[in-house]
Amino acid sequence: MIRVMLVDDEPLILEGLKHLIDWGQLGYEIVATARNGVEALEIAKYVSFDLLITDIKMPEKTGLELIAALNEREKTIRSIVLSGFQEFHFVKQGLTLGIENYLLKPINEKELISTLSHVKEKINHAFLKEESTLVLRDHSIWRWLVGKMGHTEFKQRMAFYPEVQWKFPLRIGLLKMEWDQHTEEELYRLQRTLEQETSAMTVVTPSGDLLFIWCGFERESDWGQERSRFQSVVTEAPIGQPFVFVHSEPISEIQCLYEVYREMEMKCELKLLLPERDHHMADQLTFKRESELIPPQMNITLEQDIFEHLANRHYQKVRKDLEHMLSESHCERNPIFLKSVLMEFFYRLKSQFIVQLPFDQYVQIVQQIVHVETTSEAMKMIDRCIDLLEDDHLQENEKNYSPIIQTVLQHIHQHFSQDLSLKTLGHSFHINPIYLGQLFQREVGCSFTKYLNQLRIDRAKKLLLNSYDRAGQIGKKVGYGDATYFYKQFKKYEAMTPTEWRKVHKHS
């Protein structure tokens, strides 16, 4: 969210600017207002902001003098000036101070929105440029680690980062946390701190986790010292939210990296879901593909056959194939393997098919998997998992709507994360937007905007319960491009922030 200060000596203009547009929807937040340049400079001592919107002619200190004074303080802000027709000579001076644009009074709403869009793009670009080196490096490392980049291409990319030295054996670690309203800037600041104060190369993953890579440390005593130092730095870091950290044993071959990383992801999620006393489950119930007990064809079957049948809703075929697989593998001889197969199936069903579960039901299924000992018991769990998927598909519209509203509702549910409006829907379905809005209100019982917001908030609540994505990321997934605007909408509907709601409902 881009922070804004408004400065104008006319109270009506100052108040009008605050309500002229939906600042939150555009990614902006008004954090301060002032009636002259002297007052604005005083406020700037204790309030940080990214954009200044100021009148040019004001008593005591002009807008241009204010901008010049802020520049002298090395404030990295951008500025927009408000001007009257008779003040163009002031605007020329403003251009030398680096103003983004000048807007004539009375302020034109469209011109203001257009200017703010350009400023936002510049601010975002500046931030990305500052972090681009680490971002590009991290992206390459992560893609290589998960098998999305070949080793030859990876070596070529790493040639741009001579400080990165790869030496096997190596260890990797994963820190998964709930950031919620923490900014990307804070995340990268933590990354830099960990790289400076420990021996770990620290990578920010696309999901906002921190991945660590240690090279060397072949002697266990050396590794013990580094691990203690690392954990001390993490403990003192300003994370402020619950987190889970796991690390691997030494890895000697490149081919094993992805499986180890995947293993750690599963461990982290389980440890975040379960109480601390049950964290040993995460270490027990992981799917070790390198184990000699696992038939080599099993993963191919799971990937190409079973999940394809699930996608096509051929549930009986899935049941039959899994029962045959478990029987042929003689799973009852190794209950740990049996449980691991079930956990693998459950997790992939949940993630790939976005099956939403209440938290208590999620934990209950995991705990039941822990106690499975026989193929018969395993099949009952598989039936339960598939029933969840079937129930998810059966939740269709139960009310009798007109054909056009049924079509619109189906479209909204399929594309709720996209930019939707009555105008775009009217264009898509060849109906007048005003008439569509009236029809929607009459049949559904609420306005289109309220329905869409409620749908997005409901989907966000499911993701808050069933994932450990940051709240801002969840907001983007359900259609809110700006995290702070999502927080405000969520609080409007639920009377608490996403983090507060998550804590109340996960542990109730």
UniProtKB/TrEMBL annotation:
Keywords annotated in UniProt: Cytoplasm, DNA-binding, Phosphoprotein, Transcription, Transcription regulation, Two-component regulatory system
Source organism, top-level taxon: Bacteria
Chief location of this protein within or outside the cell: cytoplasm
SMART domains referenced in this protein's UniProt entry, alphabetically: HTH_ARAC, REC
GO cellular component, one term: cytoplasm
SUPFAM superfamilies given in the database record: CheY-like, Homeodomain-like
A Pfam family per the record: HTH_18
Example GO molecular function: DNA-binding transcription factor activity
Response regulatory domain segment(s): 3-120
InterPro entries noted in UniProt: CheY-like_superfamily, Homeodomain-like_sf, HptR, HTH_AraC, Sig_transdc_resp-reg_receiver
Localization terms from the record: Cytoplasm
GO biological process: phosphorelay signal transduction system
Modified residues (4-aspartylphosphate): 55
Gene3D superfamilies cross-referenced by the UniProt entry: 3.40.50.2300, Homeodomain-like
Residue intervals of the HTH araC/xylS-type domain: 406-504
PANTHER family for this protein: HISTIDINE KINASE-RELATED, TRANSCRIPTIONAL REGULATORY PROTEIN HPTR
Protein name: Two-component sensor response regulator
